[in-house]
Write a structure and sequence with these properties.
single chain, mainly beta, six-stranded mixed beta sheet, 57 strands
Length: 749
């Protein structure tokens, strides 16, 4: 039976040993905030513009939590312990790989009334739906519609079918609007400021709620119009076409620019009211429905929602707030969460506002609880996270520093900074505590020499480039420049960095400079390698001396590395060169979230590096990944921290392959059956999910060498191992349909 733990094979160990090792996604290293409070979700990875839904991930009868961060299109899952009247979630990344790749928005709703939440997510000009096909111990989804259609005709026939339009910017309301048991859709029209009501005809046509058959029943639902110049609404709009022909689409008017919708019953009258967010504003407006089930009519509005609800505070959240309604504290009553709908230019450290409900679901009393739900227990650095290890106080323990792109604080953009987490643990049991969010005062230094102001996107690297025995610091920024800070403390002392030169040596890599000091040339002098927005790496060789470096551009495309995916114009590379025994290798983060692995580096700095893996064993922690490694617990194995654009970090601890014995491991519940094992000629691989049919199978020896790779279009695979030498091998299986993979050890007789 496969264990539910995310364990990833790494066919090397950085700078310590060439034996194979495993990586375990971990929360084992304790992290404290600046006043000593433990961050329970320290290594979850940060949150920015988040959409929240309920789902029973493990079918244990308790509703768990699904989050979808529009910043990087990242899914994160949390298992609920179900403690009554308590917020009690545990991060559960083992479920994340069971979800399909999604973008822009994703809401979980049970459309077929089987008690299991299905997926509604943006598709081209509308939405697609994935049915929840889970069984106990196996979370799974199957796409049932690439694009859902609706009948836009009048009451006459024939039907005029077109995609049920929802923009990528909007968040629709998917709810039982008319109380008949199936899920309807309320969404803004593409043509203007009116809300459309698409009725699900499943109950009317089939008597059960297992279909997605929609008809436009009202193109001015609620008889209101959103004003173009602000986010107020005009009530009792005449909606002339709505009276004569409710299904007619209004042509012309202002093109819709972006709104978020939440339907709920605010006053227990059995009708769905509406909470509205707008793309250019920080508040939310509630509209009260005093019409009827079949004829919604909004009669009042409140632009400071939910301030007038039990005298709480109004939503005031930069930018484009979206509201979600679910039971967060296990009291049987739904609570309100608000987060920005915009993936950038928004609040990014206090962007998950929680209002608990002290009354009933259909007549809530909202009470503001906190503005950083889940975030407050994470390592959270706003937009972007660029971690690096550095012993800042020379105590022999690796500390963690984290650069970022930008913080949004108190209605203004704060320039980016470097956070310092001091290692206050021991050599075998590390523990980090936040000491400052502005290490070396970089947020206040005018590194942008063109505008004479602080800069964005600071990414540090460390090394002794002046030969005085202590580590100096070079900081890259979003303008593509690098800046030198010399360490005046001296060897063995706590570092003291002083700006020596902004726009250091005139180096410019275009945009988003991510530097690393590393001896690429092998001449014992530290060179500069710099990732950039284009997804490549520029190489500046140190042609100076140990005490007076001169960095000379050798190539703008070192090793022909390019982490830009097909269809994208940017790659956002961040290199991490390291020594694997005597060999230099490279991990490189990217915009896509994939981590690229290269070797064949030492033979020639101008040659093409060999690509070992373009998706570092299926790790994907969100957009613009940034990976660094060090042996944090002195066990001879390399541990990794991975930053991402949601502003957080994830921890993967090294685990020796000799410790796995005969156990099976899987990340993300792919759950193959492998037999016979041991075998002398054929190994059969089958899968519990019959809907998955496309796989890639890779076979590695215990030194990490790729022995065999093949793609299959069947879920009953037969692997020929007859030509292999006797011994133990590691089998890696990737699904080519969903972001899921599994690993197992096999034995050849």
């Amino acid at each position: 039976m496969f264990q539910k733990i995310v364990i990833l094979l790494v066919a090397l160990s950085v700078s310590v040993t060439s034996n194979a090792q495993f990586l375990v996604h971990s929360n084992s290293i304790e992290v404290l905030d600046s006043i000593g409070n433990k961050l329970n979700h320290a290594w979850v990875g940060g949150l920015n513009s988040v959409q929240f839904s309920e789902i029973d991930l493990d079918l244990d009868g308790k509703k768990d939590l699904f989050t979808f961060d529009r910043s990087g299109n990242k899914v994160r899952t949390f298992r609920s312990n179900g403690t009554q009247n308590t917020i009690d979630y545990v991060y559960a990344p083992e479920f994340q790989g069971s979800f399909p790749k999604m973008h822009d928005w994703a809401l979980l709703r049970d459309y077929d009334c089987d008690g299991k939440e299905d997926i509604f997510t943006y598709s081209n000009g509308g939405f697609s739906v994935y049915k929840n096909t889970s069984t106990p111990g196996n979370l799974s989804f199957v796409k049932i519609s690439d694009l859902v259609f609706s009948d836009y005709s009048k009451n006459s026939t024939p039907p005029q079918m077109a995609n049920l339009y929802i923009s990528s910017t909007d968040i629709p309301a998917i709810d039982d609007i008319d109380g008949d048991g199936d899920l309807d859709v309320v969404t803004f029209s593409i043509f203007g400021s009116y809300v459309e009501y698409h009725k699900n005809m499943s109950k009317e046509l089939y008597g059960i709620c297992d279909s997605l058959t929609f008809k436009l029943k009202n193109n001015c639902w609620g008889f209101f119009k959103e004003n173009f110049s602000n986010n107020s609404v005009t009530l009792s709009d005449t909606c002339p076409s709505n009276v004569v022909s409710p299904e007619k689409i209004i042509i012309g008017g202002n093109k819709h620019s972006g709104s978020t919708l939440l339907t709920l019953d605010l006053n227990n009258n059995g009708l769905k009211d509406l909470v509205l967010g707008d793309v250019s504003f920080k508040n939310m407006t509630s509209l009260i429905n005093n019409g009827s089930i079949n004829n919604a009519y909004m009669t009042s509005q409140d632009s400071v929602f939910p301030k007038n609800n039990t005298n709480t505070i109004a939503v005031d959240l930069q930018l484009f707030p979206a509201a979600f309604y679910l039971d967060i504290n296990n009291d049987g009553k739904k609570d309100l969460i608000v987060s920005p709908g915009s993936p950038n230019g928004s609040e990014n450290t206090k962007s998950c506002w929680l209002y608990t409900n002290s009354n009933i679901t259909n007549q809530p009393n909202f009470n503001f609880s906190r503005n950083n739900f889940l975030q407050g227990e994470m390592m959270e650095h706003g937009e972007g996270s660029y971690p690096i290890f550095f012993d800042y106080n020379a105590d022999g323990l690796m500390d963690l520093l984290v650069g970022n792109f930008i913080y949004y604080v108190d209605n203004a953009f704060q320039k980016s900074a470097i956070a310092l987490y001091e290692n206050i643990g021991t050599s075998s049991q590390p523990k980090f505590q936040l000491k400052t969010r502005d290490y070396a005062g970089i947020a206040k230094i005018s590194l942008n020499t063109f505008s004479n102001m602080p800069t964005y996107g600071v990414c540090p690297t460390f090394g002794d480039i002046d030969g005085d025995g202590d580590q100096d610091m070079i900081v890259g920024d979003y303008n593509g420049k690098v800046h030198l800070f010399t360490n005046t403390a001296g060897a063995g002392n706590t570092a003291n960095f002083v700006l020596a030169q902004a726009d250091y040596q005139g180096i410019d890599v275009g945009n988003y400079a991510k530097p690393q000091l590393f001896d690429i040339s092998g001449d014992t002098l530290l060179d500069l390698v710099i990732g950039n927005q284009a997804g490549k790496i520029e190489y500046y060789k140190n042609i100076g001396t140990k005490t007076s470096p001169i960095f000379s551009l050798q190539t703008q495309n070192l090793g022909n590395v390019n982490v830009t995916k097909v269809g994208n114009v940017n790659g956002y590379s961040r290199p991490f060169f390291f020594k694997n025994g005597n060999q230099t290798e490279l991990f490189c983060g990217s915009l896509s979230g994939q981590i690229f692995h290269y070797n064949n580096i030492d033979s020639s700095t101008s040659s093409t590096y060999n690509i070992v893996d373009t998706s570092f064993y299926s790790i994907n922690e969100g957009a613009r990944t940034s990976i660094v490694g060090a042996d944090l617990n002195n066990d001879g194995l390399t541990d990794y921290v991975i930053g991402n654009y949601s502003g957080g970090n994830s921890l993967y601890m090294g685990s020796n392959v000799t410790n796995i014995q005969e156990k099976h491991f899987a990340d993300f519940n792919l759950q193959p059956t492998i037999f016979p094992n041991p075998s002398h000629d054929k190994i059969n691989i089958s899968f519990s999910n019959p809907y998955l049919t496309k796989f890639e199978v890779r076979l590695y020896d215990l030194q990490g060498k790729l022995i065999h790779s093949e793609k299959y279009n069947t879920n009953n695979i037969q692997l020929d191992v007859s030509n292999l030498s006797k011994g133990v091998y590691v089998l890696k299986i990737n699904s080519l349909e969903i972001p899921a993979s599994a690993h197992d050890k096999i034995i050849k007789h």
